[in-house]
From TrEMBL:
Its EC number is 2.7.6.3. PANTHER family: 2-AMINO-4-HYDROXY-6-HYDROXYMETHYLDIHYDROPTERIDINE PYROPHOSPHOKINASE. Catalyzes the transfer of pyrophosphate from adenosine triphosphate (ATP) to 6-hydroxymethyl-7,8-dihydropterin, an enzymatic step in folate biosynthesis pathway. Gene3D superfamilies: 7,8-Dihydro-6-hydroxymethylpterin-pyrophosphokinase HPPK. Residues 54-65 form the 7,8-dihydro-6-hydroxymethylpterin-pyrophosphokinase domain. It comes from Sphingomonas bisphenolicum. This is 2-amino-4-hydroxy-6-hydroxymethyldihydropteridine pyrophosphokinase. Coiled coil: none annotated.
Length: 124
């Protein structure tokens, strides 16, 4: 593991009623995206994840947000993660581990994407 973010407590996205703990890690690995996904799903299973329904309650959810090889798309995996640019609970921890990482589609850094999302957020 190269870097780990602080843990962020966030409200749920979807029908869950509980809060979530979100974080990000930066790792270096020789695994391809499909092999990394298989490894991650094994970790989730060992931690008690059961896949019943989309947006359902889950004990853990590990996503691959970005990788150094640029975009990746298959039937089971899309990198970058499809919605990461619009989710503060993803961008905030990601900012702590990879602020200068560039989105392969927009060529914007994580720092810029985070600032743009903060600027667009409604003020309370």
């Amino acid at each position: 593991m190269l870097r780990i973010s602080p843990i962020l407590s966030t409200p749920p996205l979807g029908p869950s009623a509980r809060r979530f703990a979100n974080g990000a890690i930066l790792v270096e690995s020789p695994l391809s995206p499909p092999a990394m996904l298989t490894m991650i799903q094994g970790i989730e299973n060992r931690l008690g994840r059961r896949r019943y329904r989309r947006w359902g309650a889950r004990s853990v959810d590990i996503d691959i947000i970005l990788w150094s090889g640029g975009p990746w798309r298959s039937r089971t995996l899309t990198i970058p993660h499809a919605a990461y640019r619009t989710r503060a609970f993803v961008l905030t921890p990601l900012l702590a581990v990879a602020p200068d990482w560039r989105d392969p589609h927009l060529a914007m850094t994580v720092r810029h994407l985070h600032a743009r999302l903060q600027k667009a957020a409604p003020k309370s």
